[in-house]
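Much of our argument rests on the idea that a fold can be written as discrete symbols. This step matters because it turns folding into a mapping between discrete strings. The record that follows shows the chain in one-letter code together with its fold in token form.
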Amino acid sequence: MSGHSKWATTKRKKAAVDAKRAKIFTKLAHLITIAAKDGKSGDPNFNPALRMAVDNAKAVSMPKENIDRAIKRGTGEGGDASRIEEVVYEAYGPNGVAMLIECLTDNRNRTIAEIKSIMNKAGGSIAGAGSVAYQFNKVGEITIDGQKNSLKGEDLELAIIESGAEDFDSEDGFYVVRTGFSNLHAVKKALEDAGVVTDSAEVVQVATTPVELPEDKAESVNSMIERLEELDDVTSVYTNLA
């Protein structure tokens, strides 16, 4: 199996989890709330999206009481979940890099103002609806840290292949597994049944035609992405940067 590797994005997210746990907890809580709300169930056994959100939270040691509180908000037991909504902004970053910025917010005006401030300073701009989204495809993505698994090397790779995954990349014992986004839950369950411990599972946006930039220009884009990801309302930033 082979495919486009997104190590810069994956490793940046992994570092953010380690270095900024409090903000990560806030974002994960919002994702749990939305999953409970949209799935109309607070039971992960009957709500696959909620199960994945809860599993992702547990993977970074989010306290159980935080998880339970977020679920109750989504089901209406612990607060007004309707105030939180999912918003996706399309944009162009420095050097014309296409971007999708996914957010969970209770105040659109605040969110877009914060995003525009960062993008304007970096030489980027918000784009019209539909002008960027067509350049991306939704896929399911599962990350696996080989050091956390008893299955190693070829045995782990065989389990990935037999799970029904479409593709995977590996580097230094760290795996990124991709599948159709509608099969994400099924592939994750197949991996778990095979004894594989996963770090995270989520639906991501992958550029259909990645572009390459010189190192200095790519660094300016990555620097802007890092500032965007520090915003509480921003959950994910995707680009067509190779």
User: Anything to note?
Assistant: The chain has three domains: 7-83, 85-134+210-239, 135-206. The radius of gyration is 18 Å. Helices lie at 7-19, 21-38, 48-59, 64-75, 108-122, 153-162, 184-193, 215-229.
